[in-house]
Amino acid sequence: MVSTVAEAIISIAAIVAATFVAVTIFSSIFQISDTSSLILSNIKEKIDVDVKIITGYVATDYVKVWIKNVGRDSILEELIIRCDVMFGKKGELKYIPYQKYTDTSPYWNYTIVNDYVNPNTWDPEETIELIIQWDTTLETGDYVLIFTTYAGSSDRIVMSK
């Protein structure tokens, strides 16, 4: 009788332990699955929304660059202005706000130079002309411009004056 009770207790403990291990393993599998889905979604968005800086130059008090939409998705005007622009001498980059959000230089603005398909939408294969209006005279030297889309894809260019 004592051995039967001991066997029952051991059996119940084994079932509880096996259940705990199974729940832990399945929980980990679902977390890995969710993480993988999120990573793939982010990669897809970066492929769908991608840019390439074609060329640019630094003038006395402004900078001009041309950026091509090389992704698969069109970028609406309200998303273009959410892109981030960093500019400055190497090691001294400064965040440049879009003109709508500031009254003082520096700021950036853009024009879609070959707006063929959808007006006011930056479609694939179209180029924007981005102009940074600077607050002082830009000195001679090397400058870096980094353009980052709202989706996180980015490109950079180094220009000399």
Task: Summarize the structure in short.
With 161 residues, the chain is an alpha+beta fold. The protein has two domains: 1-48; 50-160, Immunoglobulin-like. It has two helices and ten strands; from the N terminus they run H-E-E-E-H-E-E-E-E-E-E-E.
The figure for the number of domains is: 2
The CATH architecture of the largest domain comes to: Sandwich
pLDDT below 50 for ≥5 consecutive residues: which ranges? none
Count of discrete alpha- or pi-helical segments spanning 4 or more residues:
2
CATH class of the largest domain: Mainly Beta
| CATH fold name of the largest domain | Immunoglobulin-like
Instruction: Count the beta strands.
Output: 10
Characterization of the model:
The protein is of the alpha+beta class. The protein folds into two domains: 1-48; 50-160, Immunoglobulins (Immunoglobulin-like, Sandwich). Helix content is 32%, strand content 35%. It has two helices and ten strands; from the N terminus they run H-E-E-E-H-E-E-E-E-E-E-E. It has helices at 2-48, 77-80, and strands at 51-58, 62-69, 75-76, 84-89, 94-96, 107-112, 121-122, 127-133, 142-148, 154-160. The strands form three sheets. The protein has a four-stranded antiparallel β-sheet with strand order 1-2-8-6, with no helix packed on it.
